[in-house]
Amino acid sequence: MIEQLSAFLEAQVPCDGESMAQVLELFDRAEAKLHAAVLELDASGAWAAEGCLDVTGFVSVHGRCSRGYARRLTGRAAKLAALPVLFGAWRDGELSKFQVEVVLANVGRHLGVFASQEAEVVPTLVPLGPAETVAVMVSWRRHADALDEPSDKSEEPSELYLARTMHGRRELAGHLSAEDGDVVSAAIDAARSGGGEGTELVGAPAQRADALVGICRSYLAAHEPELPGRVCSRVGVLVRYEDLEGFGPGRTSDGTVMTPDEVQAASCDSVLHRLVYSGRSAVLDFGVGTRTISNNLWAALVARDGHCRHPGCDRPANWCEGHHVVHFSQG
Q1: By the 8 A CB rule, do 287 and 293 touch?
Q2: DSSP SS3 for 57
Q3: How far apart are CA 211 and CA 220, in angstroms?
Q4: Among 32, 28, 26, 33, which residue's Cα sits nearest to residue 7?
Q5: pLDDT class for 38, splitting at 50, 70, 90?
Q6: Which of 52, 87, 198, 261 is 20 to 30 A away from residue 147, measured at CA?
Q7: 3 state SS of 201
Q8: What is the arithmetic mean of pLDDT over 249-261?
Q9: Would you call 215 exposed, middle or buried from its count of C-beta atoms within 10 A (0-12, 13-18, 19+)?
Q10: pLDDT tens-digit profile of 170-218?
Q11: Which one, of 215, 218, 258, lies nearest residue 236 by Cα?
Q12: What is residue 331's predicted lDDT score, i.e. its pLDDT?
């Protein structure tokens, strides 16, 4: 089979519409087979022989992808294992990957309910287009939700997911109980910059994100034993001295590359450690941490300004960071 796949990858794909349609269908069915192979690998435990902790780790290492991406693949495969009719329709080319993902997205916590009905539901999806599939599954989910006992919904725990994207950003997703949602919403509303009228207009999503980061910074500052009132996020940034001085790049402790601007912003009010090392792993010296803005200078800033100096911003001092007019690395 591996030889056949290799031969296919070496072949020239015709550019006419009919041939391209066939290639798209083949790739779709090939991905279905990949999910089946992942399930077999997981069941066999062969991933352990590669030194991986689980099948997700195996996919991440050998697929050269993030663990979050690998978790989505293995999680989808696990759900499909409980839905053999849906899985079979995908492998046979009767349903597309998009249709399968629409089904899984709407099934959610009703996996068992759909499993008992898939023999009747899946054949009705086969002739449908993308929009029609979405409409049918959304309707199915609403009917399934309506059959839930009220207690089932209230007991569902709050969940939060924070995944790193391929661009180094973070993607936040999840769902909260009614009580938890009220708490989070009230905190974000209270922390949003600007306040008052018009806060639900342009820029509201950015304001909420900014407010959430501010809340987290405030929490970290309040729980910093050595420097109360100062924002100490404990985010490690590794950068060579010559790069710091010459506006070069850096990286976080998990390997994410940071742009020169991000490095300069992170180092403006931070704890600097001298790290002397040989090669890639031999640490020779780890110097004492030194803040680029001393506690005395910080106290003077608070006494002078009282709050954020940005025009129109009245955030309290313990939500702020100190910054240099002329960056410290430039003298």
Answers
A1: no
A2: helix
A3: 14
A4: 26
A5: very high
A6: 87
A7: coil
A8: 73
A9: middle
A10: 888 888 887 788 788 888 888 775 444 444 445 788 888 888 888 887 7
A11: 258
A12: 64
How far is residue 192's CA from residue 319's CA, in Å, rounded to a whole number?
12
- The DSSP bridge pattern shows strands 271-272 and 257-258 to be unpaired
Q: How far is CA 296 from CA 257, 262, 265, 279, 299, in A?
A: 33, 26, 21, 38, 5
Q: Assess contact for 130 and 65: CB atoms under 8 A.
A: no
* Residues forming beta bridges with residue 276, ordered by sequence position: 285
Give the dihedral sign, CA 242/243/245/246. Answer: positive
- Phi, psi angles (nearest 5°) of residue 260: -55, -40
User: Which residues partner with 252 through β-bridges?
Assistant: 237
Work out the pLDDT band at 150, boundaries 50, 70, 90.
low
Which residue(s) pair with 53 in the sheet? none
CB atoms within 10 A of CB 182: 11
Instruction: Answer whether 175's CB lies under 8 Å from 153's CB.
Output: no
Which range has highest mean pLDDT (248-252, 276-280, 285-289)? 248-252
The residue to which tokens 């025009």 are assigned: 311
Q: What angle do CA 258, 261, 263 make, to 5 degrees?
A: 50
Tell if the pTM clears 0.85, that is, is over it. Answer: no
Name the CA dihedral angle for 214, 220, 225, 230, rounded to a multiple of 10 degrees: -30
